[in-house]
Amino acid sequence: MKKTLLGIACFLALPSSICHAEDAIGWPTFDLNKDSALTLTEFGNYLSNVYVELDTNLDGRWTRSEFVTRPSYMRRINPDFLRSKFKRWDKDSDGFLTLAEAEKMIKNNFRWLDKNKSKTITVEEMPKKF
Asked: Which residue, 27, 32, 51, 86, has fewest beta-carbon neighbours within 10 Å?
């Protein structure tokens, strides 16, 4: 839990110009041991990178608008679907996703994606529109 939160916090400290790896190369960039699968830590780093891109005012939390209005390369997901995800993940219903809520999202997404319970996510397990 602390590693994931630390990863998110570190990415929040980076300038936004560094955070385009997902656009250019994709999630395999975060596969640190190059085994063609992501561990929870690697997956957390991948999603942290995405979430930093969404935090347009860099305040360390995300409004529904920030979460739904994405850079053009991330617009492959239906905005209505994103709104429902935001509502489900905003556990305290305060209109913001916080670092703690993002950490829970990462862990829950990882468990959901790890279909074979191998504690890694492979390309085959990743949905096309994730």
From this structure: 32
